[in-house]
Automatic annotation (TrEMBL):
UniProt name for this protein: Folylpolyglutamate synthase
EC number: 6.3.2.17
EC top class named in words: ligase
UniProt entry keywords in alphabetical sequence: ATP-binding, Cytoplasm, Ligase, Magnesium, Membrane, Metal-binding, Mitochondrion, Mitochondrion inner membrane, Nucleotide-binding, One-carbon metabolism
Amino acid sequence: MHSVLSALGSSFWCRKMVFDAAKSVGIVKSLHIASESHTVGDSYDEAIKTLNTLQSNAETIQQTVRNSGDIETARFRETEKFLRRTGVPLERLDTLSVIHVAGTKGKGSTCALIDSILRSHGIRTGFFSSPHLISATERIRLNGIPISEENFVKYFWRIYNTLQKSQDHERDMPTYFKFLTVMAFNVFLEEDIDVAIVEVGIGGEYDCTNIVRNTKTVGITSLGLDHTHILGNTLEEIAWQKAGIIKSKSHIFTVDQPPGCLRVIEQRAKEKNATLTVVPDFDTYNWVQFPGKNVGTKVQRVNASLAIQLSHDWLQHHRLTRLKRKVNLLKEISEEISDGIENTKWPGRCQIIPFHRRTIFLDGAHTLESMEVCAEWFVDNTARNSNPKCLIFNVTGSRDSKKLLRMLINTSSFSTIIFTPNIASEKFHATDNTSVLTGRDEALERCRKNEKDLQDIIAEKVSKNGLCGLNGFSKLQCQVLNSVADAFAYLDNMYGKEREIDVLITGSLYLVGASLLALEHVDAKK
């Protein structure tokens, strides 16, 4: 029986696999574990449980962004304080070469492509991303590999204990994401890397990753409406936030944007005396060797073009001895770049997993624009077969599930729709994916709201088109279940284990992560 892990590719690591692989490439060194009386797994779980106590909700983030009378305080002082307490003043942070990437859609994928392209040139990379799918170690990568649990434990407890001992008051600790940002910079400074590829958390201007100053190469991916309660209600407001990572005299690369967004980015670049370039269309490149993977969709090609130019710009700066450098767009694509694109592993985005008699389609789309792309991708890959089409769906935060569901059901005809929390199983659930802010009952209530939204959409169709509005929905099965594992079991019972079905899992990267974990455990039982 095939393994889910092998289907996911080499970047999808269970905990022991991460450690073993890291040892094999020399990343893991002799480490002092925080507590000698515990196993690595125990110590790791303890670290994650402690990390989870630092979780903050969206209201806390919004308060930081909007109620800060002193922008410099919101942007720098708290993060700077925590870094300094861990032995990293800004002057030391300046020694870290950084490629900084913001955007609404595709920033993680773009960073993963940059990481792989640079490694194909022999560059030693660090990569900080969010969120993780299964293990928190995924957020901090060295040379393409998530740091080992032992390394995570070592850095976590050293930084946590240092910050706790230096508290001015009981609540003087960083939030979850800010802590991991501080930890990532500590890791990158101590490990032997040439460049840190840093994905912005939310926004850019006020994001704690924006503490970095030595950023000569900046990327802004496709923009859209997301986190509007934090970043603003218009594309222009969001563009202003994203462009906040532009540094003085840096080179900024972006993709084709709505005109209003591009005007905002241009203005912010002008304010910083920075150079802005819109990257070429992917189809205009000349290839020595065309990549065999990761360029199959329009979105993947947009991200790849941005990654090519960001990588090229950094390589030029890295190898240049002259003080001044000019933007020199790359048009002739080398074999190293092609290999880097083809070898990129970034699970949970336009990912297809053949799983026994099921074909699982995973995509963490959670904005209207990205859901449109996801729906088209699913149809393109399933329209030519007669398999039943099933949807497993969830959204988090303040996102409008009705708009996302309407996009999905208008594009594809589903026979079964299941709403489930971002929980792999009630029998097994990774501590890494535990939310201390949202309980099981609250998560299920959100699922019931999603189901109600679907019912409202169908009712609207009937009201508008009469009984014809029921076309495609008369035999629809709709369920709210407790976990992804329960959803898989439900599909097995409904269709039998031998019938081929296509299953789309989308709406949240956290749901995708829970699904990957559930698949791993289901596969282990076979």
